[in-house]
């Protein structure tokens, strides 16, 4: 269930990609990932949406231009939680009042408390499924040190339909451990984005962070380590997966080599049927369509 806050309606006409009458697949491009900011662009035939907006307004515009997209073309933003590396750019959307910001009530209150003019909030209840244009969106609780953090599953198309087959993306960042329902959402998706935040050895050796911060990161409401993320994916791996993106890597307490080492066995098990891409700290990806 989604409650609407504000009186703006959707503009007539939806953005299309491709030839007239051609159905577009889902397309995902991670614009930025890591403690400095997180944001991704998800596109379907009828929607262009951002998943999180954890950069300054100027940086968001730069990232979108690099992805051949203008801010004016964005239809909505879906927020996982209120931390700055996921929600810093929300206040800038006052320049584009037609863009609706989807969040649960606790996240919206926390973000709005730091913002200027009120955003066009669309409030959902955590655990519910609702529709946005041609997307079916399911929110689910994740354990993290925020007000009411969520993961998302975005789905498009229809089960058993030859021309518009069902496609699904699981978006799972910022969680200290994986409750049982998370496994189900991963199994029901064919593209998975999951955090692989830190290497326990590198976190322990880090001299910049106090002990209390290290405890928070590695705790049950912190972030998944490489080992924990791999165990989660090993437990849920299935033949329907098309691609896995490992995200939210710590710049100081992780490395591409450490992640690669932890996931070498899973990569071999998945084989060529499912690509596994490690997103470098502060980096993004090319657009990937399925």
Task: Describe the 3D structure.
The radius of gyration is 18 Å and the shape is globular. The longest helix is centred in the last third of the chain and has 15 residues, at 256-270. The protein is an alpha/beta fold and 290 residues long. The protein has 8 helices and 15 strands. Helices cover 24% and strands 24% of the residues. The strands form 2 sheets. Strands 1-7-6-5-4-3-2-15 form an 8-stranded mixed β-sheet. The protein has helices at 57-66, 84-87, 105-112, 180-187, 200-205, 211-218, 226-236, 256-270; strands at residues 2-4, 27-32, 39-43, 48-51, 76-78, 100-103, 120-124, 129-132, 135-141, 150-156, 167-172, 191-195, 243-247, 275-278, 288-289.
How are the elements arranged and paired?
Elements (H helix, E strand, L loop, with lengths): L1 E3 L22 E6 L6 E5 L4 E4 L5 H10 L9 E3 L5 H4 L12 E4 L1 H8 L7 E5 L4 E4 L2 E7 L8 E7 L10 E6 L7 H8 L3 E5 L4 H6 L5 H8 L7 H11 L6 E5 L8 H15 L4 E4 L9 E2 L1
Parallel strand pairs: 4-5, 5-6, 6-7, 11-12, 12-13, 13-14
Antiparallel strand pairs: 1-7, 2-3, 2-15, 3-4, 8-9, 9-10, 10-11
Helix pairs in contact: 4-7, 7-8
Give the CA-based shape. Answer: globular
| Widest β-sheet, arrangement of strands | 1-7-6-5-4-3-2-15
Residue windows where pLDDT falls under 50 for at least 5 positions: 6-22
- Report the major sheet: 8 strands, mixed
Work out the number of β strands.
15
Compute the separation of the termini in Å: 28 Å
Instruction: Classify the secondary structure makeup into a structural class.
Output: alpha/beta
User: What is the residue-mean pLDDT, rounded to a whole number?
Assistant: 92
As a percent range, the share of strand residues is 15-25%
Radius of gyration: 18 Å
């Amino acid at each position: 269930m989604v409650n609407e806050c504000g009186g703006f309606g959707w503009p007539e006409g939806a953005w299309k990609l491709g030839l007239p009458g051609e159905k577009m697949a889902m397309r995902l491009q991670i614009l930025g990932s890591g403690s400095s900011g997180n944001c991704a662009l998800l596109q379907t035939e009828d929607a262009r949406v951002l998943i999180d907006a954890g950069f300054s307004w100027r940086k968001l515009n730069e990232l979108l231009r690099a992805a051949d997209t203008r801010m004016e073309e964005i239809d909505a933003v879906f927020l996982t939680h209120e931390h700055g590396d996921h929600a810093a750019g929300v206040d800038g959307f006052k320049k584009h009042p037609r863009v609706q910001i989807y969040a649960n009530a606790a996240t919206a209150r926390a973000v709005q408390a730091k913002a200027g003019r009120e955003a066009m909030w669309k409030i959902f209840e955590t655990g519910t499924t609702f529709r946005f244009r041609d997307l079916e969106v399911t929110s689910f609780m994740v354990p993290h040190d925020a007000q009411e953090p969520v993961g998302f599953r975005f789905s498009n198309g229809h089960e058993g339909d030859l021309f518009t087959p069902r496609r699904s993306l699981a978006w799972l960042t910022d969680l200290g451990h994986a409750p049982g329902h998370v496994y189900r959402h991963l199994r029901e998706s064919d593209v998975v984005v999951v955090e692989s935040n830190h290497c326990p050895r590198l976190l322990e050796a880090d001299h910049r962070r106090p002990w209390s911060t290290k405890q928070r990161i590695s705790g049950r409401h912190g972030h998944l380590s490489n080992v924990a993320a791999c165990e989660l994916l090993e437990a849920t791996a299935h033949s329907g997966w098309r691609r896995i993106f490992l995200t939210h890597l710590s710049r100081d307490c992780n490395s591409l080599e450490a992640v690669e080492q932890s996931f070498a066995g899973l990569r071999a098990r998945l084989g060529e049927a499912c690509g596994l891409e490690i997103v470098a700290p502060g980096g993004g990806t090319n657009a990937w369509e399925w």
